[in-house]
Amino acid sequence: MPDNLPMDFNGFPRLSGHQLLSLDGPDAAAFAHAQFASDVTALPVRHWQWSAWLNAKGRTIAVFQLIRVDQDRILLVLADGEADAIASQLQRFVFRRKLSITVRDDHAVGGSFTAPDAAAGAAIAVNGETLELDVGSDALPRTLRIAPRAGTTALDDAGIALAWRQSDLRFGVPRLAADQREQWTPQQLGLDRLNGYSVKKGCYPGQEIVARTHFLGKAKRALQLLRVGDGIASGAQVQQNGAAIGTVASVAGDLALAVLPLEIASDPLSVDGLDAAPLPLLDGLAR
Question: What's the predicted TM-score (pTM) here?
Answer without folding.
Answer: 0.93
